[in-house]
Design brief:
mainly alpha; two-stranded antiparallel ribbon
Amino acid sequence: MSDELILENFLPYRLSILSNTVSSTIAQAYEKQFGLSIPEWRVIAILGRFPGLSAVEVAERTLMDKVAVSRAVTKLIKSGRIDRAFADADRRRSILNLSPEGRRVHDEIAPLALNFERDLLQGLGPEEIAQLDVIIERLLSRARVLDQT
């Protein structure tokens, strides 16, 4: 490895470019077909898998900014895609669930998201995909360790 920083070869930069490119491509489809932003879709996706979370728990599970989650939750409540109840023991803690409309949107988008993932991975063999999964998990684990220091 060289001591010179060449931005286009710098792994964090390359990961950011990849993430932004993938997110913006998929965001265009979600916006056009469903009127959803990426944060709104992530809230719907996480509540589809883990119903009954609070907004704080959604932010923790997705590693999204709490303000972005709060805005997405507010829009999704207004659009009738999620329902909010309050915990009996702690009235400050809201419990979020998909409404029937939210479940319908989730069930329509999920196959589109999986197809996008398949298209993105096209050209990689099964061994390469398995290796990519292992590498991503190792990098994520290492990044979490570095975040603690």
